[in-house]
From TrEMBL:
GO biological process: cellular response to phosphate starvation; phosphate ion transport
Function: May transport inorganic phosphate (Pi).
Classification via Pfam families: EXS, SPX
Stretch forming the signal peptide: none
Keyword Cell membrane in record: yes
Stated name of the protein: SPX domain containing protein
Cellular localization per UniProt: Cell membrane
Key word RNA-binding present: no
Length: 787
């Protein structure tokens, strides 16, 4: 793989604009090369292509030896030096690096001068970004240090409640060399020039239990100095060992609806009660915070390394084209710069590892490092094989169904209408789910192809996210099961003796639904348990939407549910058909039941109602008027769905007018919101007219095609009020299933561009990490907020 592609593949996508623009610099070098090729001596007709004279002339042209002087002739060092790199300081501005090209007067030197100017701009951009991020992680490490101090003090208080200030227990602990951790604290109380997590000590462990890295640091110092510093550290931190708990409050994260209601009536923070439950929650939050902080350090270190490697590669290309040997001087400057000489990130990583292993992995380094550095998920050949096998089985089953229909002449059978009214809705549920999974599999494929960081956007744990192969495999497996069930139940002739259909085939659809729910809630670690539980958690948050903080996975799932209204109605039909109908005779009185008709409307409104109250919750939290407009959009859809459903059940001219008007307004508003707000398109003054400034897909026509398709497919749901309820060659149930499938396809298209827009927003804000709430608040912080 060429370095340019490897460099792009290793980028932190949200920081891609902060990386060195390797491709652009490479293009500048190509211009230098083309100029030299144009001005090199062209061999005449009398000069053989392989002659010695031609080889010498080309060599001189590319070596810059046109003056006729011998290469090994003595020259001064200043004359041989092609560049001079210096540091420029401006008042109020970070130091900048500037390269002076000493041979700009040479033929074609202006091309090389442009190259070095752009190279300096890229290097200064990289250095300033790296310095800014390092300062941010240092500040974050200071806060994590304070949090660790409180956590360890809380553990002492909970596990050893008899320990109090002023008693002999504290003196005994301190006399054994025990103190609270003092990361990023120097002995004189000031932060050192290069902060690091030093002297992380468990309160229940002696000084001999330090990690190897700390022992090496201490071992290099005089023993007397170590003893003095140890005593000073004990004297400094011993009095505050438990006093740190006096002005601390614990963050009460609303984890349940009851705790959320309690948080509305009371503050989001509360005084410590020194309970084991508080200790458990605090430890969980600190674990998440340290893991996320360590991932940030890893990516920052990768950013530093990849950019240094890129500068090295581009300078070697420059030397190869011009043979000026300027890379040595420039790379020496890179090594002396903050980018090459700073080791804060490496030292922080070592201290985070030591802290996590000692405090959260019981000293088990292997266990701790497996958590901090999860292994990259590998593609398995078994998945590829099963995917191909099940896909082939699905195609074969579809062909078998078509053949059976033709052989048995089922389309003209007397029981065709009965089958479409009672059996087809049962199996259409699985068709909707399979189609949605196929669309989501395609979404993942294109997100990966265009390097959209969807695991970060959805907040998935690293190494647990599903790829497009896994989702496609699940959809293929469900397709095989449902198609096999259709074949087993593809009988339209009733038994003339019993006047009933066979019970076992009639129960197959219900058995398949129960099987799917058992798999979904299975507690064993099979069939992607982490993903299943993540889905269940998001669904639970949707169900109790106003009582949980709304995150992107929650409202994204709710949006998916709005495209599965017909699937919810199919589930309602399952209940009515099997519990109140005569399924052995394929008879149901669902359409005649007022209760069924009422729930037919309610289940269609539920997904939109969830999105509506999610918008209200976000409006209350974020105070952003856009959420009010979004909620108004969903409220208009609720009215439109209600009018359409009532019109479908009762008919009437007035109802038709109301249904048409409400549906038209809702369609226009939803379509505008999809394209302009969710996708960020139709920006007239953008760099890409009528699109947006940044695009991931290089083919601009894709965005215009998607926009047109979204508009057309939005109109499909108006088929009820437009009068296309039946077709001469299609049953009413089949037409409803086709319209529902079109909405699922539209949702799949919407998914890609919605997450693409979210990814570009993260890129614009350099947001590559999720914010993890810390367990403790300090009294002084609350006072500052009140002030």
């Amino acid at each position: 793989m060429k370095f340019g592609k490897e460099f792009a593949s290793q980028m932190v996508q949200e920081w891609q604009e902060a990386y060195m623009d390797y491709n652009f610099l490479k293009q500048l070098l190509k211009e230098v090369l083309r100029f030299r090729q144009r001005n090199s001596p062209v061999p005449t007709a009398t000069t053989p292509r392989g002659s010695l004279r031609r080889k010498v002339s080309l060599y001189r042209a590319f070596s810059g030896l046109t003056t006729g002087r011998h290469r090994n002739s003595p020259r001064k060092r200043d004359e041989d030096q092609a560049i001079l790199v210096s540091t420029v300081h401006h008042q109020g501005v970070e130091e900048q690096y500037q390269t002076m090209f000493m041979m700009s007067s040479d033929e074609g030197g202006e091309y090389e001068l442009v190259f070095f100017r752009r190279l300096d701009d890229e290097f200064n951009k990289v250095v300033n970004f790296y310095r800014k991020k390092v300062e941010e992680v240092i500040e974050e490490a200071d806060e994590l240090t304070r949090q660790m101090n409180v956590l360890i003090a809380l553990r002492i208080k909970v596990e050893n409640p008899v320990v109090r200030l002023g008693e002999s227990h504290v003196v005994n602990l301190a006399s054994n060399g025990v103190s609270l951790p003092s990361q990023f604290q120097s002995l004189n109380g000031k932060r050192p020039e290069r902060p690091q997590m030093d002297a992380i000590q468990e309160v229940e462990m002696s000084i001999e239990g330090l990690m190897e890295a700390e022992e090496e640091r201490i071992g290099n110092e005089p023993k007397e100095s170590n003893h003095t510093k140890e005593n000073e550290g004990v004297k400094r931190f011993r009095p505050a060992s438990l006093e740190v708990l006096d002005n601390v409050k614990i963050n009460v994260a609303p984890e349940t609806p009851i705790s959320t209601l309690r948080g509305i009536l009371m503050s989001s923070t509360s005084d410590l009660s020194f309970s084991k439950e508080e200790l458990r929650k605090s430890k969980e939050l600190m674990t998440q915070a340290l893991i996320e902080f360590y991932q940030k350090l890893r990516l920052l270190k990768s950013y530093c390394f990849m950019n240094q490697l890129a500068f090295s590669k581009i300078m070697k290309k420059y030397d190869k084209i011009t043979t000026r040997h300027a890379s040595k001087a420039y790379l020496e400057m890179v090594d002396r710069s903050y980018l090459g000489s700073s080791d804060e990130v490496t030292r922080l990583m070592e201290r985070v590892e030591a802290t996590y292993i000692k405090h959260f992995a019981n000293g088990n380094r292997g266990k701790g490092m497996n958590t901090l550095r999860p292994k990259t998920k590998r593609e398995r050949h078994r998945i590829t094989f099963l995917l191909g096998f099940l896909s082939g089985c699905s195609i074969a089953l579809v062909v078998a169904i078509v053949v059976l229909i033709q052989v048995r002449n089922l389309l003209k059978s007397e029981g065709r209408g009965q089958y479409m009214d009672n059996i087809f809705p049962l199996y259409s549920l699985f068709g909707f789910i399979v189609l949605h999974m196929l669309m989501f599999s395609a979404n993942i494929y294109f997100w990966r192809r265009y390097r959209v960081n969807y695991p970060f956007i959805f907040g998935l744990k690293q190494g647990t996210e599903l790829g497009y192969r896994e989702v496609f495999l699940l959809s293929a497996a469900l397709s095989v099961l449902s198609l096999a069930a259709v074949i087993s139940n593809l009988d339209m002739k009733i038994d003339p003796k019993t006047q009933n259909f066979k019970m076992l085939p009639e129960l197959v659809p219900m058995g398949l639904v129960i099987f799917l729910f058992l798999i979904l809630f299975c507690p064993f670690n099979i069939i992607y348990r982490s993903t299943r539980f993540f889905l269940i958690g998001s669904a639970f948050h949707c169900l109790f939407a106003p009582l949980y903080k709304v995150t992107l996975p929650d409202f994204f799932l709710a949006d998916q549910l709005t495209s599965q209204v017909q699937a919810f109605r199919s589930l309602e039909f399952y209940v009515c058909y099997y519990f109140w109908g005569n399924f052995r005779k394929r008879e149901s009185k669902c359409q005649d039941s007022n209760l069924y008709q009422a729930f037919y409307l309610v289940v269609a409104i539920i997904p939109y109602w969830i999105r509506f109250i999610q918008c209200l919750r976000r409006l209350l939290e974020e105070k952003d008027g856009m959420h009010a407009l979004n909620g108004l959009k969903y409220f208009s859809i609720i009215i439109a769905v209600s009018m359409r459903t009532i019109y479908e059940q009762k008919k009437g001219t007035i109802l038709l007018i109301l249904a048409s008007a409400s549906s038209g307004i809702a369609t226009i508003g939803a379509t505008y919101w999809d394209i302009v707000i969710d996708w960020g398109l139709l920006r007239r003054n953008s760099k890409n007219p009528w699109l947006r400034d940044k695009l991931i897909v290089p083919q601009k026509s894709v965005y215009f095609v998607a926009t047109v398709l979204n508009v057309l497919l939005r109109l499909a749901w108006m088929q009820t009020v437009l009068g296309f309820r039946e077709a001469p060659f299609l049953h009413r149930r089949a037409l409803v299933a086709i319209v529902a499938s079109l909405e699922i396809i539209r949702r799949g298209i919407w998914n890609f561009f919605r997450i693409e827009n979210e990814h570009l927003n993260n890129v614009g804000k350099y947001r590559a990490f999720k914010s993890v709430p810390l367990p403790f608040n300090y009294g002084d912080d609350d006072d500052e907020k009140d002030a």
